[in-house]
Amino acid sequence: MFQPVISGSGVFTPDQTITNAELVAAFNAYADKVNAQNARAIEAGEVAPIGHSSEEFIVSASGIYQRYVMDKTGVLDPDVMHPTLRERTDDEPGIMTEMGADACKKALAKAGRTADEVDLIICAASNHERAYPAIAIEIQEALGAGGFAFDMNVACSSATFGIQAAADMIRSGSVKRALVVNPEICSAHLEWRDRDCHFIFGDVATATLIERKEDAKGDHFEILSTRCLTQFSNNIRNNNGFLRRTREETDNLPDRRDMQFMQNGRKVFKEVLPIVSKHILGHIDDIGVAPDDLKRLWLHQANKTMNDFIGKKVLGRVPEEAEQPNILQDYANTSSAGSIIAFSKYSDDLKSGDTGVICSFGAGYSVGSVIVRKA
Question: I want to staple 26 with a disulfide (CB 3.0 to 4.6 A). Which of 76, 171, 281, 285 is the partner?
Answer without folding.
Answer: 76
